[in-house]
Write the structure tokens for this entry.
Amino acid sequence: MSSSYLTPVLTGRTLLRANPVSKLFAAVVITVALMSSIDWVSATVVLGCELALMPLLGISVWGLLRRIWPLLIAAVLGAYGTALLAEKTGDVLLAVGPVVFTEGSVAAGIAVGLRALALALPGIFILLTTDPTDLADALAQKLHLPHRFVLGGLASLRLVGLLVEQWETLGLARHARGIGSDGSVVARTRNLLGQSFGLIVQAIRRATRLATAMEARGFGGGTRTWARASTYSPLDAVIAVVGLVVAVGAVTTAVLAGTWNFILT
Amino acid sequence: MTPGLVPPQGAVHVSARGWGWRHAGRKAFAARHLELEITPGERVLLLGASGAGKSTVLHGLAGVLGTQDEGEQEGELLLDGAHPASVRGRAGLVLQDPETQVVLARVGDEVAFAAENLSVPREEIWQRVGRALDDVGLALPLDHPTTALSGGQKQRLALASVLAMEPGLLLLDEPTANLDPDGVLEVRDAVVRVLERTGATLVVVEHRVAVWADVVDRVIVLDAGGGILADGPPGTVLVQEATRARLADAGVWIPGWRPPVGGTLPSSGSGPALLSARELAVARTRRGPAAVEDLAIEIRAGEALGITGPNGAGKSTAALTLGGLLRPRAGTLVAHPGLAGTAGSTPHRWRSPQLVQRIGTVFQEPEHQFLTASVEEELTFGPRRISDTVDTARIAELAERLRLTHLLRANPFTLSGGEKRRLSVATMLATAPRLLILDEPTFGQDALTWAELVTLLRELVDDGVAVLSVTHDADFSDALGGATLHISGGAGRLVSR
């Protein structure tokens, strides 16, 4: 458990230097391309590009695997479930009682699994390579989102990290009062609900105090300046173009291969 | 003082004309009938009993009490003739709890935050950040994580953060109440340096008067019933017999005076051993590093023990482990039959209802242990976990002894700081544990609550209860006597008296 969501351990030397807005742009165009069609070709192209780009982005394969292995399992399970339940077209590949896999259903399953991974990776790349403070600066200065909203979100991130600590303390404090995580299922459920309520009460009180501290430092006015300038560099243009190329390339390849399956038609 | 560095707008003049504030949903005014003039550059210590409205006055001056939805205002409170909320940045407020004031992840950004909010140009922001960090003596890189600071450093950071606004009025709400003695001096000295450079007006609220008595040139005592009880230079207000008596009645800590306590100084324990620790290593989490190693201590019935040491040394972790709440990392912790009864000798394996009859642990933050919606329910909660019938006479006696009888219907969260502390101790005593563990029981308490607590604990020890307190309040340790386990640098050393 990292001690703070505001200071996560970051990696990926190239993307670290980029402006969060260019990363978001690339992720969004790739996501739109992927969401437009359910086919295995476009998903494979995107996933292949993402994996091939990893060394350039400075993200280590093992570092990534360590963080996303639950996602891999989920993708495999999703693929299996789809293959099992999708429309049974094409030749039968395997039939054991009610369990039937056909060429068509397996292709659909693979497409779903690949798409899930291809969709998830850009977001994970951004998480791994973006400092929350830089993200807030970029959202407010470049995308001109309201600064109260952006900075409020940033400040609350720190409180989210503290929730874990607070939950543990509350558990100990309740145990000391004679109410613990033992007994029947009903008693445990009631205890869990009680502790959750206690956590909410504490979280609100904490947030209120933080809000007072922020207000006492002049937060909440109409305008403000920014101590850190959020800037674009040539790298950001490269990232945006690469995102576009990957998205357009995936769609073009799928259309040429005849697998393009636009969801709105 | 370097003339060129004085803030452009200068020190603030404060005036209150019949000012009062009632929080929405409350019947009584938190502060009322306040008539006050504070001239620019004056340094004021604001005193008063718990509930006299000291914090409300500071929040009012800082302009953070809110709008009509959040309360009702009477009269006027003005900074240089203007409403405090309309002159953002003229007043800088530092709050009591170092943990709840940090907004951002890095030291530099944290200090810059207030200047950004005041629309200071970028180049000037970073000049102000450097100057503010210099002022408070925090020689840290700008990208130093704010989580990796001690309590005293966090309070100095909070001070630097408001200094970046270049306020003409510095408001400090019990800035050192949660700090160890070193941290107290760190913060006090930083404030003095800042005032010498900027010449700003100061209003500080603090129970422990001795810390600020030499720094301020005026002491104002608020009357709990509204208005002002005493006003004058510290040499007069804090020395004159008449005002001293009234300050003592109000629970203010006056230099050279300790509130009278009842009971007798406990002698060192000769009762049967309750709990023994040998080569005990304690850790907050299962996998994290051990906070303290190789602890040895024996706790006997009818003795008072202390745990001391700097902030963050692992005192609380040690206390939670001795209290059976955390699993020991290594070594042995044995509960003897006099404590364990039929429950086995390893406290951390006890189920909650078993634990609550044997060891009572009072947490630093009373609110963490409140479980119900009324004081009465809080008091009967523990006994109900043990048996279906509750000894109501005993509960009534406990409530009487801790002056909670008139509050039985009240919601625990709405009590004052002193009342919350008394209730959190009472809830633990309701199940008559043989060992009572308290984590910083006197943090932020006024002298009256302090004296009550000491008297009660002395009586408990006299009745054969063992009392273990984590504290850096030397007066408190003196008043309870007993040996002290001093923890620092990951090791513990038992100091006998």
In short: The first strand of chain B starts at residue 14 and ends at 23.
